[in-house]
Design a protein that fits this description.
Strand content: 15-25%
Shape: elongated
Order of helices and strands: EEEEHHHHH
CATH topology of the largest domain: 434 Repressor (Amino-terminal Domain)
CATH superfamily of the largest domain: lambda repressor-like DNA-binding domains
Largest sheet: 4 strands, antiparallel
Strand order of the largest sheet: 1-2-3-4
Length: 160
Amino acid sequence: MKRQQCYSCGAPTGMLAFDQRSELIDYRHLQRHLHGLAGWECQECGEIEFDAASAERYAAAGDQLLEEYRQSVAADIKRIRRKLHLSQKEAVKLLSGGGHNAFSRYERGEVGVPQPLYVLMRLLDRHPRLMKDVLELGEPRPAPSTLGAPAEPQLGAAGG
């Protein structure tokens, strides 16, 4: 049985070699099972260190899950935008305030969708009637009129 010192907690013989281990990688409800991993596990602190080949496979599987999630969100954003009958340009103007190509990049999965925008889009997907409010609130507000408006109180004025 091979043992070595743990780099994490310093236990002198804490790391125990393992082979043919299975691990579950989970990223935002997407999962991937990896089998046949090898490396070391500390019996004191639980730290795991994969060998080079296993570490590469683990990292690649994690990257693949991230890409799958990004593409899933991209498809969702596109579906919701179309359901709301918005062009990409209108969606940017009303919902994100980003650059003119922002929604195009979101929908292709080139960049991640900001979480507040994704939450808003999902809310509008569940309650499309709220789009009326979004349109109303998205209208420019007129500047407050100074004619006929009550005078602003002056700082430091007597009697205030």
